[in-house]
């Protein structure tokens, strides 16, 4: 080695190695960010999994009456998961968690079986048939925790804590500065939305399997990184209905907001997830910054170049205060299944025409309200709207 290079090597060897960024947990953020912490602590993000012994109020399922669908007792439940559409129950065994075979349908207040069947998810062929042989570590826990270690199966904290979106906070806690913590607002919109898409998407880890296990979440991702280096969104062929997609490419099942959103014009224009949502918590549905219509009309109002021509009534052909005049009823219909007949909203923002529904079987937004009608009626009604191009009503 030439003397200058030898000297440089010796100098580098003498320097202390930079410590890996450390995770400290959301509690370390509370002293300086008390108001935000307080709001966040009440959100579903902060409470997606709960220990029923520490939080008995989190249990929503009816364990007071015997039910043949429920071959377990509350004493066997280590974690409850979910509080809006469904609640599932995790048991702990040999350092891993396993989903028990019944889930509580919150909408209908009934028990339903839980078992992921063949062709109902990509990972099913790589795991045994029994729930008791399908650990949640590789299939769920990376999105329900901060800093899940696949080797030790330990986490910094359960639930979607501050560092899930802001990255490891050890340096920031020791010496608070804007330069040593990630704020998604300050990075490019693609990387910013990736922070949410890491969990709000159906996809596959590029490096699967890892140490013989197949993972259904982006192992190794830290907020701010390009997610696509680790994660590929679920593939789809237009014209086909699959367990993940409708034939037009929109989401067929829950946890696909990211798959939808990246197809949208808004995503292409630099809008991010948090242009509409505040995961620290708001008083609005889905933690929206404002009630849905008020939020949409900020950018798409009648006087905006991106808004409808004329008034809301002229655009929607419904009274302004009615459900049919709400932006999200037509542009974010509930077509992604989460459990039984309970569906969540699409995030492509495309209007589904009756012709598309007839040709591809995609649920039509008009019939969500006009349940006693059919697609022929919808087509006839829309044909009367002289401010809608007839070409737009074709598939």
Report on this structure.
The chain starts with a helix and ends in a 12-residue tail after the last helix. It is α+β, with helices and mostly antiparallel strands and 395 residues long. Mean pLDDT is 94; it is low at 1-18. It has 3 domains: 49-143, no CATH class; 182-350, no CATH class; 351-395, no CATH class. Helices cover 24% and strands 11% of the residues.
Topology readout:
Elements: H1 3-14, H2 34-40, E1 49-50, E2 79-81, E3 86-93, E4 96-99, E5 102-105, E6 110-113, H3 136-141, E7 145-146, E8 157-158, H4 162-166, H5 170-174, H6 189-197, E9 203-205, E10 231-233, H7 257-261, H8 265-268, H9 292-300, H10 312-316, H11 327-331, E11 334-339, E12 342-345, H12 354-360, H13 365-369, H14 375-383
Antiparallel strand pairs: 1-2, 2-3, 3-4, 3-5, 5-6, 7-8, 9-10, 11-12
């Amino acid at each position: 080695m030439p003397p200058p290079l030898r000297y440089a090597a010796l100098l580098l060897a003498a320097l202390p190695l930079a410590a890996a960024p450390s995770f400290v947990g959301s509690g370390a953020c509370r002293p300086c960010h008390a108001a935000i912490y307080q709001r966040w602590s009440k959100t579903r993000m902060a409470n997606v999994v709960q220990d029923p012994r520490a939080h008995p109020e989190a249990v929503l399922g009816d364990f007071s009456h015997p039910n043949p669908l429920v071959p377990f007792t509350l004493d066997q439940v280590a974690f409850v998961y979910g509080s809006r559409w469904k609640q599932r129950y995790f048991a702990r065994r040999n350092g891993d968690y396993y989903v028990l075979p019944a889930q509580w349908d919150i909408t209908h207040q009934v028990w339903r079986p839980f078992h992921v069947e063949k062709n109902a998810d990509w990972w099913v062929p790589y795991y045994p048939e029994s729930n008791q042989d399908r650990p949640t570590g590789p299939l769920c826990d990376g999105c329900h925790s901060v800093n899940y270690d696949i080797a030790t199966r330990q986490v910094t904290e359960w639930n979607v804590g501050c560092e899930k979106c802001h990255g490891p906070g050890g340096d920031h806690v020791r010496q608070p500065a804007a330069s040593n913590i990630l704020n998604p607002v300050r990075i490019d919109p693609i990387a910013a939305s990736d922070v949410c898409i890491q969990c709000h998407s159906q996809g596959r880890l590029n490096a699967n399997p890892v140490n013989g296990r197949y993972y259904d979440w982006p192992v190794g991702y830290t907020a701010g990184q390009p997610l696509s280096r680790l994660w590929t969104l679920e593939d789809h062929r237009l014209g086909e209905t699959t367990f993940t997609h409708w034939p037009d490419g929109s989401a067929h099942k829950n946890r696909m907001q990211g798959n939808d959103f990246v197809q949208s014009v808004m995503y292409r224009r630099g809008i991010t997830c948090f242009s509409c949502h505040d995961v620290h918590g708001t008083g609005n549905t889905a933690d929206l910054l404002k009630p849905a219509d008020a939020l949409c009309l900020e950018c798409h109002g009648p006087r905006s170049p991106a808004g409808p021509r004329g008034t809301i009534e002229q655009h929607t052909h419904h009274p302004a205060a009615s459900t049919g005049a709400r932006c999200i009823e037509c542009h974010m219909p509930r077509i992604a299944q989460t459990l039984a007949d309970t569906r969540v909203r699409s995030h492509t923002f495309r209007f589904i025409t009756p012709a598309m529904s007839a040709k591809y079987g995609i649920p039509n937004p008009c019939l969500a309200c006009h349940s006693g009608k059919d697609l022929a009626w919808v087509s006839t009604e829309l044909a009367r709207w002289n401010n809608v191009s007839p070409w737009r009503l074709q598939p």
